[in-house]
């Protein structure tokens, strides 16, 4: 056992030393490429590309799922986990960037053309869609592991691509919204990428306002009823979506929507209730409400306000009468009980 432990310790120390040598070598390469005069042979470029490919295109080790409940405070303080290989991978990416930005000779232009082709909007959106739609990534992330490197980065790139979509939107893009983006609201680690996700969702609604009903119902279906910090995030996103929502779409989802808003207004968590109240500070949302029901504010419709107030007082009065009768009944029962107890003791 001691020999085995010693061998493992020695091997670990050797790996640390080798990794440090690799990092120092990459630093030297990056510095050299940054200061070189551009005299690189084709064989050197090919070797550099091979080295980059070996390091970047590799199997990612799955991160074990932690079997514990993450409360709101833990979620707010949690930080993204760092790939153990990142200290040297960062240098590999930087070296690739240096070569890409370098003025290459015509014989080496294949490198630039290959990398540039990845920046094609159609190719890139197709690639990201396939990655997020693929069951081993999107569905496994949402429903099983809740761990994946790069979701926020994917969504950040995707947001700029959606912004440039031509109208009308393709059917496959709408399917991508429903099957890949909306389910991303489910994981507990939503805070890590919610800003990017919210931007992508809002871009879809701004491009096609008819998608507002689909998005709002998707949010309601995934609503975090036991996580206050996520509820605040959902309310923030909901306001952004409603700002791009038109009356016809609002009418289709307003009943379940305001049932949820009403529950938020009655929340025991003050931040949730406060954020729900802030929806009425938005002029567009207030106008949507006014257009789809009788006016609810005393300043806008005093007669209707008085009618509602009278009904409210009537209901409260009946509740008070019922409570008074209940108390009187209990009091009579207590008196009867006391009388029976006295008679039995005598």
Protein described:
This protein is mainly alpha-helical. Among the domains are: 1-57 and 71-117, no CATH class; 297-346. Helices cover 72% and strands 0% of the residues. The protein is built from 16 helices and no strands. The chain has helices spanning 2-35, 42-56, 72-77, 86-101, 109-117, 121-133, 135-145, 151-163, 171-181, 194-207, 212-221, 228-243, 247-265, 270-277, 283-291, 302-345. α1 (2-35) packs parallel to α4, α10 runs parallel beside α12 and α11 (212-221) runs antiparallel to α12 (228-243). The longest helix has 44 residues, at 302-345. The protein is elongated and about 110 Å long. Mean pLDDT is 77; it is low at 1-8, 64-78 and 117-121. This is Serine/threonine protein phosphatase 2A regulatory subunit. It holds the Pfam family B56.
Features:
ARM-like; 346 residues
Quick structural summary:
By secondary structure, the protein is an all-alpha fold. Among the domains are: 1-57 and 71-117, no CATH class; 297-346. Helix content is 72%, strand content 0%.
Question: What is the topological layout?
Answer:
Blueprint: H1 2-35, H2 42-56, H3 72-77, H4 86-101, H5 109-117, H6 121-133, H7 135-145, H8 151-163, H9 171-181, H10 194-207, H11 212-221, H12 228-243, H13 247-265, H14 270-277, H15 283-291, H16 302-345
Helix pairs in contact: 1-4, 2-4, 6-8, 8-10, 10-12, 11-12, 11-13, 12-14, 13-14
Number of beta-strand segments:
0
Whole-Å distance between the termini? 87 Å
* Low-pLDDT sequence parts: 1-8, 64-78, 117-121
Overall morphology? elongated
Strand portion: under 5%
Helix content: over 70%
Organism: Brassica napus
Protein name: Serine/threonine protein phosphatase 2A regulatory subunit
Pfam family, one: B56
